[in-house]
Specification:
heterodimer, A: alpha+beta, 4-stranded antiparallel sheet, 45% helix, B: mainly alpha, 16 helices, globular
Chain lengths: 182, 465
């Protein structure tokens, strides 16, 4: 059974400090939630550098190559169009579309890449089992610890989070992993 | 000495004028910024919506007449082949550009004051580009074949001509719309989650839940989100410059006197930003008042917008000056004739209206009193949009109506269908904007809360600027 231990903090700095303390104590499966990006949370959890930049570069290069190759093949090879005697392969007039497609592909890569990294869209997540979690997008700061079938660790974490200043703690279970009611 | 100290003090006060009123907590901010979306719509909103919808009706009629009768229903003739259609297209696209400028360029330069107004401005961009798109599509004459513009493997075994600026335009405008939409939606995700969580009714929770894609504000989300948002902003910055540059190429690449000028790209971009900021002003003044947003869209925002209007207005004025200078300096008699005709020909009243609205009106923003008086800035913003429309009209129609050969000269007068299309798109814009204000968090909540957090905690260098 998959569980999440949740702790709510009203102060952002207290939450970040608690997060860092937990990680230094060797806890795993940590995550934090805030209504806006907070400085220090990524470092406290130890997230690696975002991969979005690579998606952007890849998308941009692919777009530029696609754009140029498309114009060259269509206008100079497959259906040559003579415009006022200009060369069939006329690079300057292909700059705008090459640029536009580079931007378009990069934007698609950034958007869909990051949505993929978020693991969205999803219709359910166990943290929403605690109704108070609604405040996480409004004005409070949360820590979650993911664990599996470990009631002892759960109790320890609940106590620890309160100790670290959480104003509300709870344990939620993934509804999908609960045994079905008869 | 004393005067110097006083002005220095005033300068400090000015820098410290609040971007978010002090004493606001995250909760009060969230609720106050969402109150308009959560409460039943006031009567004024319905009245405006009715007005907007009647414009949409007019648009429907005008489009139907155009489809039934063809482009002959417009005032276009054989010299003036691009009249209201292209004027309106360029005007709307230009209005859209301020949205991207505010949300992308000011983001990249870390101008914090953008945070309360970027969402409005981005929505304005999307709707303005939709309005703009109507015109070229109708203008192709057979809009049901407009897909021929895209390179797809057809049974006719031909491809579009990529040496044509009109093809560049197709790619620029469709890329611009797509990227603006993605940028807007990405910025919206956390706020859709907030409105989902603030909502009391189950229907709203489900609908906003779906729209927010299940966003939960996890540190892992924010980690990639910040990077993605910054990168999209970084991409949108050169994109917005390229779009109006390419729009200006529609003209500048042609040989027509009045169009064939190297100053066109920067001059068009400046004009676009100028008219777009004016549109932001026109919309934001009533919106902040009727939606109770004066605490997040403060006098300081309005003053900054006015400063941008003044600066871009000066750039536009420089563009006019340069056009006339080059017409004389080039020694090209056709070029000189076109500009003489602007001042003295059949469209001279339009030309003087353009000069009044675009060159004289923004000068009042040299005065701090004008930059801080709501009525003055609202009227000025409307006049500037009129001015920018007349500018595009002069460029398109006046340059076309008298080209090289006097035997091909003609006049021009618009028909009721032309006017109805223009008014109709305004109605569509109003309707779309009102629906946006009602159903979507109209201020970037998470960004304003982040700003308020930074201001209260002293935060980073540049906080509160």
């Amino acid at each position: 059974m998959k569980n999440f231990i949740l702790g709510e903090f009203s102060d952002s700095e207290q939450m970040v400090t608690a997060l860092r303390t937990l990680r230094e104590a060797g806890e795993t499966g940590l995550d934090a939630y805030s209504p806006y990006p907070l400085h220090g949370t990524s470092e406290a959890i130890g997230l690696p550098k975002s991969r979005v930049t690579k998606f952007a570069l890849g998308g941009g290069l692919l777009g530029a190559c696609t754009g140029y190759a498309m114009q060259w093949w269509m206008n100079a090879v497959d259906y040559p169009i003579n415009v006022g005697g200009r060369p069939l392969h006329s690079a300057p007039s292909w700059v705008p579309i090459t640029f536009e497609l580079a931007v378009l592909f990069a934007a698609f890569a950034i958007f869909f890449g990051s949505i993929g990294l978020f693991g969205l869209p999803r219709t359910y997540h166990p943290v929403f089992e605690d109704d108070a979690f609604r405040r996480a997008s409004i004005n409070t700061f949360w820590i979650s610890v993911e664990l599996r079938d470990d009631p002892k660790r759960a109790e320890r974490l609940l106590a620890r989070l309160s100790e670290l200043g959480a104003s509300h703690v709870s344990s939620v279970a993934d509804a999908a992993s609960l045994p079905e009611e008869p | 000495m004393a005067a110097g100290t006083a002005s220095a003090r005033q300068r400090i006060d000015e820098l410290q004028a609040p971007l978010v009123n002090p004493g606001e907590t995250d909760e009060t901010l969230s609720l106050s910024m969402l109150q308009f979306q959560l409460k039943p719509a006031p009567r004024g909103w319905w009245l405006m919506l009715m007005l907007g919808l009647s414009g949409v009706g007019l648009l429907g009629i005008a489009v139907s007449v155009t489809l039934y009768q063809g482009i002959g229903a417009w005032g276009n003739n054989i010299s003036v082949g691009w009249a209201f259609g292209i004027t309106n297209f360029v005007w709307w696209i230009g209005i859209g550009h301020a949205g991207t400028l505010i949300s992308a360029i000011l983001l990249v330069f870390q101008q914090k004051w953008r945070n309360s107004i970027n969402r409005f401005a981005e929505a304005m961009t999307l709707f303005a580009v939709m309005c703009a798109g109507v015109f070229p599509v109708l203008h192709v004459g057979r809009p049901w074949l407009a897909y021929w513009l895209f390179p797809y493997p057809s049974t006719m075994v031909i491809w579009p001509n990529f040496k044509s600026p009109l093809m560049w335009d197709v790619f620029a405008v469709s890329t611009y719309f797509t990227v603006s939409l993605l940028f807007w939606f990405l910025g919206l995700l956390p706020d859709l989650a907030t409105i989902r969580d603030v909502s009391k009714s189950r229907t709203r929770r489900i609908l906003y839940g779906i729209a927010s894609l299940g966003w939960r504000g996890s540190a892992r989300h924010w980690h990639d989100y910040k990077m993605a948002y910054m990168l999209l902003g970084g991409l949108a910055t050169p994109l917005v410059l390229s779009v109006h540059t390419i729009v200006s190429f529609d003209f500048a690449v042609a040989v027509l006197p009045g169009w064939h000028a190297t100053i066109f790209p920067p001059y068009f971009v400046a004009g676009a930003v100028f008219s777009g900021f004016a549109m932001v002003m026109t919309l934001i003044i009533p919106a902040r008042r009727f939606m109770g947003l004066k605490h997040v869209i403060t006098e300081r925002h309005l003053e900054n917008i006015n400063k941008v209007i003044l600066a871009t207005g000066m750039m536009v004025a420089y563009g006019y000056l340069m056009e006339h200078f080059i017409a004389w300096y080039s020694g090209d008699q056709f070029e000189a004739f076109v500009f003489q005709d602007r001042r003295a020909g059949m469209f001279r009243y339009v030309y003087f209206l353009q000069m009044f609205c675009n060159v004289l009106v923004p000068q009042i923003f040299w005065f701090k009193k004008a930059r801080n008086t709501i009525v003055i800035m609202w009227i000025a913003s409307v006049l500037i949009q009129v001015g920018m429309w007349t500018e595009r009209f002069m460029i398109v129609v006046q340059s076309l109506h008298k080209d090289f050969l006097p035997s091909s000269w003609s006049g021009y007068s618009p028909t009721w269908v032309d006017w109805s299309l223009l008014l109709g798109t305004m109605g569509f814009f109003t309707t779309a904007f009102l629906l946006f204000l009602k159903f979507v968090p109209a201020v970037a909540l998470s960004e304003v809360k982040e700003l308020s957090h930074e201001l209260q905690h002293g935060g980073h260098p540049g906080a509160g600027r």
